[in-house]
Design a protein that fits this description.
Layout: H1 2-5, E1 18-26, H2 29-35, H3 54-61, H4 69-77, H5 86-102, E2 109-117, E3 120-128, E4 134-142, H6 145-152, H7 169-184, E5 196-202, E6 208-215, E7 233-241, E8 251-255, E9 258-262, H8 270-276, H9 287-298, E10 303-312, E11 318-327, E12 331-342, E13 345-356, E14 365-376, E15 387-399, H10 409-414, E16 418-429, E17 433-447, E18 453-470, H11 472-479, H12 487-491, E19 496-508, E20 521-531, H13 533-541, E21 553-554, E22 557-558, E23 562-574, E24 579-592, H14 634-637, E25 642-655, E26 658-670, E27 693-703, E28 708-718, H15 735-738, E29 739-745
Parallel strand pairs: 1-3, 4-6, 7-9, 7-11
Antiparallel strand pairs: 2-3, 5-6, 8-9, 10-11, 12-13, 13-14, 14-15, 15-16, 16-17, 17-18, 18-19, 19-20, 20-23, 21-22, 23-24, 24-25, 25-26, 26-27, 27-28, 28-29
């Protein structure tokens, strides 16, 4: 009775079938992979959550009596059985046939096979691609004598059409677009790809094709007389900035072919507008410069709207360029409220920011931000206070170009370059100590022309860490009483100077601003940075002073010297309409040398948390087999110089804005040197693989359009901190010991 009541058949009308499965089968695996034929299936089966049709089950639980509110609610929450649609099956066969025909498989065929069992149907499309036609000969005919030099010369070497290549309609269209773009970038403003025609001849019994390309004369419409294509040049350039109407009083300034027209206050410098417009007076018109100009104006935060129009002077070959710009509101004030939970200690933070998007009338962005935080600390004994307060101030100026000698403005525009000056001050007062950090930085950013690669160069970042006060209780318990044994602990409670220089490379196969979630894509990130080398050279040259522990100092302050490199790889692969698999691998190595025996706290690696091995809470894993007992200082002891992170994650769309995930994580951190206070933490080639921790778990994600809210629940599977039975909690899990819950904004990778 339960089986009958849960059966899906009672929800299927007569003479209809539930679609149980639909697949594409092709004997030629290369064709299947190259053209992704499975993506052309128009109708999909019921949605699965981790392999189970949960939405269909929810729908069935509501029953068939739609007069009941519970039934209607369950039907809205769930998903009705997907019924086989012959029209959609026909579209699938047509789409696959068309794709293969366009790719040169001129005699491709698709056959549908249906298998029925009860009220359910499986559909299989058998694809027979046949022989792929290839290009035997290519000829070109140019009716316009003025274009013959452009088409028949070196351009043939750049042609997408090659002898022996597949006869692909997409390649023909690509060639038309390429030639049209090339000509429009050489002054032929009105040239259209429709002026290029291809004819194909095949011989009976042969799979070879002769292709003839014809470049026709220009014809305005079907009734006008055909004539040669006109090559245009640019006349005057007119900038209309914040001009609502041409009526009324307007201010006009002329400069060497440029005319700046405005009404009232001028919001932009003339030189800035000229440098971002790539179309110049008295030059041959170039369509590429038009697109680059749009890109330049769009990326400027001070411009709300931009439009570029070309006006042809009647009866001439001259185009006047008209640029219309509207400024954005320059002043922005923001406020953010945060709630924090650090290992059970609750707190709150408030941030207030001010931004000026047009500081010097050149779209320079000035930002000033204040942040205050408070946290109630529990579990401390022997200290005067029991709270943590933090105050921070940050200011920065971003210039929309690369301010560097010998780098031209044109290069900056083409690579979307920017320069940033940043100044930060951070004040932290804890019951154990007071800490002050002052940071000044100068950095550059730029992108590749295809928008897939991003570069960042930190020319100089100087941080001064100052410890004005340390509690006597803290000194007695953790610093003075330990003598020099805990080098890491002592090193991070002394005044320190960090002078960093670094470079970061980022590649996204879809584009640096695109989200790879659930798509076929991959990303690569590489970073290298170093500190203290110039100071070390200078102090050696002038025979600088050393402190009590033998470190060279600058103005009486010891400075850090290290090198650090990070490599991060991530790949996402779709395995279904609403599911994907993501892989992630990250490796980081940092090495202190010269003036430093340890890394600064800010540059050390930590493991565990929402973006690492998720079976551990943040900063609670490693290094190596180390199992810290003193929780008061473990945030320092559980840090290292080497980090390895590995992850595989299955991601599936659930419903509405919710998605689910199942993951397996692995990794750990290690120290390069042996430290007495971190037993088992040193990296060794013959044993490190035995010390890799592992965890597994599930997660829930909610896409809030501008950001993703994430909840992950992880369980320890392999714990290198223990031996024997406790080393493998996957076989005998202890929820209190092995479970970790994480809340985060954004994806783990």
């Amino acid at each position: 009775m339960v089986a009958v009541s849960c059966s899906v058949e009672r929800f299927i009308p007569e003479d209809r079938y539930m679609l149980k499965g639909m697949e594409v089968d092709c004997q030629d695996e290369e064709v299947m992979k190259e053209f992704h034929l499975g993506d052309y299936i128009t109708q999909r089966t019921n949605t699965k959550w981790f392999g189970v049709k949960v939405p269909l089950m929810i729908y069935k639980l509501g029953g068939t009596d739609t007069s009941k509110s519970a039934c209607r609610f369950m039907r809205k929450l769930g998903q009705a059985p997907v019924l086989y649609d012959s029209a959609k099956a026909g579209r699938t066969m047509d789409d696959i046939t068309r794709v293969l025909n366009n790719a040169g498989y001129m005699k491709a065929g698709v056959t549908e096979h249906n298998s029925v069992k009860g009220k359910k149907m499986n559909v299989r499309f058998d694809v027979e691609p046949g022989v792929r036609y290839t290009i035997r000969h290519i000829s070109r005919r140019v009716e316009d004598d003025s274009l013959r030099a452009h088409i028949m010369g070196r351009d043939t070497l750049l042609s997408l059409l090659k002898r022996g290549a597949p006869f692909d309609v997409n390649t023909l269209n690509g060639e038309r677009n390429r030639i049209a773009n090339m000509l429009r970038s050489n002054g032929y403003y009105k040239f259209n790809k429709e002026d290029i025609r291809f004819d194909a001849d095949t011989a009976r019994g042969s799979a070879e094709v002769d292709v003839r390309m014809t470049l026709k004369l220009h014809q305005k419409d079907g009734r006008s007389q055909a004539r040669n294509h006109t090559r245009y040049k640019v006349g005057n350039v007119y900038f209309y900035t914040d001009v609502p109407s041409l009526e009324g009083k307007l201010d006009t300034v002329a400069h060497d072919g440029y005319f700046f027209i405005s009404s009232g206050e001028k919001h932009f410098r003339d030189k800035m507008l000229m440098s971002h417009l790539m179309i110049k007076p008295r030059t041959i018109y170039n369509d590429n410069m038009m697109r680059r100009s749009y890109t330049n104006f769009t990326r400027l935060p001070a411009i709300l709207y931009s439009a570029i129009n070309l006006d042809e002077r009647t009866g001439t070959d001259t185009l006047d360029c008209r640029v219309t710009l509207t400024h954005a509101k320059p002043h922005v004030i923001g406020c953010e409220v945060e709630a924090t939970n650090t290992a059970g200690d609750l707190g709150a933070a408030l941030s207030v920011s001010y931004q000026n998007k047009n500081l010097f009338r050149g779209s320079e962005t000035f930002t000033f931000k204040l942040r205050g935080a408070y946290e109630a600390i529990t579990g401390l004994e022997g200290y005067e206070g029991d709270n943590y307060t933090e105050f921070g101030a940050e200011s920065s100026i971003t210039f929309p170009e690369l301010l560097f000698p010998y780098i031209s403005r044109d290069w900056s525009m083409r690579h979307n370059a920017s320069s940033e000056i940043n100044l930060q001050y951070n004040l932290q007062n804890r019951p154990e100590f007071h800490r002050r950090v002052l940071t000044a930085a100068w950095r550059y950013k730029w992108q590749s022309r295809n928008q897939k690669t991003q570069h960042r160069f930190d020319l100089a970042e100087i941080s001064y860490v100052y410890m004005p006060w340390i509690s006597s209780t803290f000194k007695e318990q953790y610093l003075d009483s330990l003598g020099k044994t805990n080098a890491i602990l002592r090193y991070n409670y002394e005044n320190l100077l960090i002078t960093k220089m670094g470079y970061t490379y980022t590649y996204n196969s879809l584009g640096v601003r695109e989200q790879t979630y659930g798509k076929n894509a991959y990303t690569v990130r590489f970073n290298i940075e170093t500190s203290g080398n110039l100071l070390n050279l200078a102090t050696h040259m002038v025979r600088g002073k050393r402190n009590d522990i033998g470190q060279y100092t600058f103005c009486g302050i010891a400075y850090a010297q290290y090198v650090r490199g990070d490599l991060d790889l991530a790949k996402s692969k779709r395995i279904g309409q609403n599911s994907s698999v993501a892989f992630h691998a990250a490796l980081g190595i940092a090495y202190p040398y010269g003036n430093s025996d340890q890394l600064p706290f800010e540059k050390r690696y930590f493991a565990g948390g929402a973006n690492s091995v998720r079976g551990w809470s943040v900063r609670s894993l490693g290094p190596g087999t180390y199992n810290g007992q003193d929780k008061g200082i473990n945030f320092l002891n559980q840090s290292g110089d080497i980090k390895l992170d590995l992850c595989i994650e299955y991601r599936a769309k659930l419903f509405w804005k919710l998605s689910g995930a199942a993951f397996i994580d692995a990794g750990n951190i290690w120290t390069i040197r042996r430290y007495d206070d971190q037993p088992g933490g040193e990296f060794q080639f013959d044993t490190f693989w035995k010390q890799i921790a592992a965890s597994y778990g599930v997660g829930l994600r909610m896409d809030a359009n501008f950001f993703i809210v994430r909840f992950d629940a992880g369980m320890k599977a392999v714990n290198p901190a223990f031996n024997g039975r406790e080393q493998f909690p996957i076989t005998h899990p202890n929820f209190d010991r092995d479970f970790a819950f994480h809340f985060a904004v954004g994806l783990p990778f």
